[in-house]
């Protein structure tokens, strides 16, 4: 039943809604930081560099989708993402993961409502072509 809900939720246009994509990006960032922590503990600098690059790209992708000049929530999310990057540089992986999970969980709590608003056109759907556009 849960798989059916997920399918129905992601069946808009090319299969993604804005909030679904955002949740996936947060999941990817968290997974990358967890992998960085494992690589650090294993003393594997090559593996650390690989996962660090993935994490930084993902965080910057999330950040690029924000409009901090137009929205106070977006501004505060941008500040939190900046803080995550600072803590990451200090190898405080636990704090990074905790903060990203809290932000992700907040979006997950409103995912159904956001998807419904997207279906109704209150929130614009993702474009059908690849463009550089705010998603969050």
What would your notes on this structure say?
The chain has about 140 residues and is mainly alpha-helical. It has six helices and no strands. It is elongated. The chain starts with a helix and ends in a 16-residue tail after the last helix.
Number of DSSP-assigned strands? 0
Main pleated-sheet profile: none
Mean pLDDT value: 88
> Count of helices?
6
Topology:
Blueprint: H1 2-9, H2 18-42, H3 45-64, H4 72-89, H5 93-109, H6 111-120
Keywords:
136 residues; mainly alpha; 6 helices
Briefly characterize the structure.
The protein is mainly alpha-helical and 136 residues long. It has six helices and no strands.
